[in-house]
Write a structure and sequence with these properties.
alpha+beta, 2 domains, five-stranded antiparallel beta sheet, two-stranded antiparallel ribbon, 2 helices, 7 strands, 16% helix
């Protein structure tokens, strides 16, 4: 079991099992019957969960809206049309305290194919407040830009 304490930027990992009916789990007084693992990973190195992906999406939508003309001219579609999508890559950051993820964009093609379009965002999502997250770099083909509106 992995427990994220977002307000404290802390991760605790517990051995819980066996599944599906665990014999060790939190008990009412707040203590654990299983001991936490030593040396939990740094908060910024945790995996992205569905809540974090959902918080990233509005920021991506705004950035991609500024690229509508470019996408229409180059690919005949926009992000809002649903024919351009994105995926991400790991690691989330090499330095302690850094949490940045490269998002790369793909175009849906006939026949259930997707094709990379040469557009990538470096997304900074350190900390627990999505209001502080931002796109800090854009790569389009072979050029680097500071923000999507610069492309």
């Amino acid at each position: 079991m992995v427990v994220y304490f977002g307000a404290e930027e802390e991760i605790q990992i517990y051995k819980v099992g066996p599944i599906p009916i665990p014999l060790s789990y939190p008990i009412p007084d707040g203590s654990m019957t299983a001991e936490p693992l030593p040396d939990p990973p740094a908060f910024n190195k945790r995996n992205i969960d569905s809540a974090e992906y959902e918080a990233m999406e509005p920021i991506i939508e705004v950035a991609m809206a500024t690229l509508d003309d470019l996408c229409l001219e180059s690919y005949g579609s926009t992000y809002a049309d649903g024919l351009i999508t994105w995926t991400d890559s790991s690691p989330r950051g090499i330095e302690v305290g850094r949490r940045q993820t490269w998002l790369w964009f793909l175009e849906y093609k006939d026949g259930y194919y997707i094709r990379p379009i040469g557009l990538e965002f470096l997304f900074d999502h350190h900390g627990v407040d999505p209001n502080n997250w931002s796109i800090i770099s854009v790569w389009q083909s072979t050029s680097r830009f500071v923000a999507p509106h610069d492309t």
